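Dear support,

I submitted the protein below through the web form. The confirmation email said the job was done, but the results page showed an empty box. After a refresh the structure appeared. I'm attaching both so you can tell me whether what I see now is the final result or a partial one.
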Amino acid sequence: MPDATFTSPDLTTFARLDELGLEAVGQRVERDRAVIACRVVEPDQWCRRCGCEGAPRDTVTRVLAHEPFGWRPTTLVVTVRRYRCAHCGHVWRQDTTAAAEPRAKLSRQGLRWALEAIVLKHLTVARVAEGLAVAWNTANNAVLAEGKRALIDDPGRFDGVTAIGVDEHVWRHTRTGDKYVTVIIDLTGIRDGTGPARLLDMVEGRSKAAFKTWLAHRPQAWRDAVEVVAMDGFTGFKTATAEELPDAVTVMDPFHVVRLAGDALDTCRRRVQQDLHGHRGRKSDPLYRARRTLHTGADLLTDTQAERLTALFTPDEHVQVEATWGIYQRMIAAYRHEDRATGRELMVKLIDSVSTGVPTALVEVTKLGRTLKTRAADVLAYFDRPGTSNGPTEAINGRLEHLRGSALGFRNLTNYIARCLLESGGFRPQLLHPRLG
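What the results page shows now:
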């Protein structure tokens, strides 16, 4: 074991009270918490009105929730001296702003611990409040206020963005219908290989107007720097991008393009099932039993699955499902091809084949062809821009779903947006390395 130099035990240093301008003068360990008695180190005897020296009058105490040690809540009882000016009679207290903000119930160290617990460890506010031994509202209000001041309101948070993703997100389920927001994701790090995606902002609603208004409020220089916008098939996002970011390239996300083909396959399977049997699929029906196998890539099929599909497509009555399945597999093959140029050629041929000459019986393929033909430029743009997709947007959407579940739901949209930004706003490096100001 290497030699180490030890000093005398010092509660002030151990509890990091010296960083707050405090000194420990006593301690008391209770059943549910530790209480440390402190005093303010620096005297503050000069009058703030006339500048004359004051005389000590009495003392008051200020109670602050401090960072826990070993998950034992720690409370600071700070003795604050009051002075009275001999000249003007003004009375004031010692300055404790180094320890905490005026009227705050959390010390600066406790507040930083709470913010790190939310951003880095993804704890709930309830768990943070338990660790600080304060009320839920006290912890929530303090963390959100500090998070907005130090992280969310940082003017440099939008700097360097060249690729964004946009999608909708359900933030609240109600009896009268779901409530939606539009989420905007920074995809620059994913595209350039310099870091993960991060949540830029959330706006109420899921319409063209919501996204267009958000873009219009960004500085012109910022809008000019955006090169790529990844999105799903919603035309409102496409139109808003064309109007506010005319030089940006829109990319229709592969996930949503494949889902369009997958939905066409499911709809065709259900229609054929209904036409043949007059009822919805049952566990003994071949079409229903193969519903999952139909969505498996052809190169990933097991021998058993391949035999099941061969038996399914043998009867002529399933030919429409087989034809739609073939379109679905061609699309997957185009996206999975190791050479993007070849994949693009395969997608061009696929779009051409489903845009014209489709038998009238294949109504699902006809509808899919119209969509692909209308958005062909957006679909093909993916192959020319590696690393640009809405996959990270969907991943962040999943993280927000988990956050909402952990909190057992949110009723206030403003609080929800702030919590989502702290959860997925990419603030981890700022908390791990440079100290907050």
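Response: this is the final, complete result; the empty box was a page-load delay. The chain has a mean pLDDT of 92.
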